[in-house]
Amino acid sequence: MIESLEADRPGTLARLAALGFRHVEPFALGLWNTPPDELEAAARALRADLDEVGLGVSSVHIAVPADSQASAIEIRASSVRTAPSC
Known about the structure:
Helix content: 40-55%
Strand content: under 5%
Oligomer: single chain
Order of helices and strands: HHEHEH
Strand order of the largest sheet: 1-2
Largest sheet: 2 strands, parallel
């Protein structure tokens, strides 16, 4: 799966949606030393790809250094959208 995502993230996400998945759980958006602006750009690009195929996010796994937690919270708050009820 990781190789598919690296080769064609939009296509891989579209295939997951076509299989009936409604949510994904992204991981490794950035390493502990990823600058906040790069982390934000990666999160926004992923959000756009997910929106394109109608996938939601159940949770994320990212490494955030203590001095950058405010940036991670801002990224999360700016990308939240309400998931439809089950």
